[in-house]
Amino acid sequence: MGRKWNNIKEKKASKDASTSRIYAKFGREIYVAAKQGEPDPESNRALKVVLERAKTYSVPKAIIDRAIEKAKGGSDENYDELRYEGFGPNGSMVIVDALTNNVNRTASEVRAAFNKNGGNMGVSGSVAYMFDATAVIGLEGKSADEVLEILMEADVDVRDVLDEDGSVIVYAEPDQFHAVQETLKQAGISEFTVAEITMLPQNEVTLPEDSQAQFEKLIDALDDLEDVQQVYHNVDLGE
């Protein structure tokens, strides 16, 4: 699973060059989660997941508060949650999650990004079956054995707990996300290097150098789209 953690690190590191874009995406996601339920993370599980992930990206409190206040204010701005699936160079697989107030615009932009960068859109279900929705929680300061013992004593089910690249990474079913976090917090762990529910590929592929360069252009093009929130793929991007 080391490669999976490397991909998460790569995605998180990429934010450094485009923090304003990342913050805007989080603002939209927080607003949608707060509007769909109570604007209180303690009673709105979807909102709590987004806020936990926002912490690992150092999203400013002002942006979080503004999005929640906008939802409380009864804004009539509405977004549709969409998932696109497609193929990149050499049959690589890509999932794109979007929040949009204009479905036709977003579909057109996502399709164009695929077509211009050696890929093509697939039908619903053509790619997602090769990925698993997974809760991923990362922390430092303890060993994998110590973390596993904490979780086992609390009877929290996880898929795996591994030492990876100097961090401990917990992989669990999505419905165990909060149980894992709360158990670790009760054990005195307050900071997480990663905390999100993501889509991890069941198998990874390595692309030839020329195809990998084109694939990275595809991922960048998709990430740059205003309506795109998350991009998942099955390519080993290396270190």
From TrEMBL:
Residues 79-235 form the TACO1/YebC-like second and third domain. One of its GO terms (molecular function) is DNA binding. GO terms for cellular component: cytosol. GO terms for biological process: regulation of DNA-templated transcription. It comes from the Bacteria. Residues 3-74 form the TACO1/YebC-like N-terminal domain. Gene3D superfamilies: 1.10.10.200, 3.30.70.980. Its main location: cytoplasm. It is found in: Cytoplasm. InterPro entries: Integrase-like_N (IPR017856), TACO1_YebC-like_2nd/3rd_dom (IPR048300), TACO1_YebC_N (IPR049083), Transcrip_reg_TACO1-like (IPR002876), Transcrip_reg_TACO1-like_dom3 (IPR026564), Transcrip_reg_TACO1_YeeN (IPR026562), YebC-like (IPR029072). Keywords: Cytoplasm, DNA-binding, Transcription, Transcription regulation. Pfam families: TACO1_YebC_N, Transcrip_reg. Belongs to the TACO1 family. YeeN subfamily. This is Probable transcriptional regulatory protein T458_24095. The lineage of its organism: Bacteria, Bacillati, Bacillota, Bacilli, Bacillales.
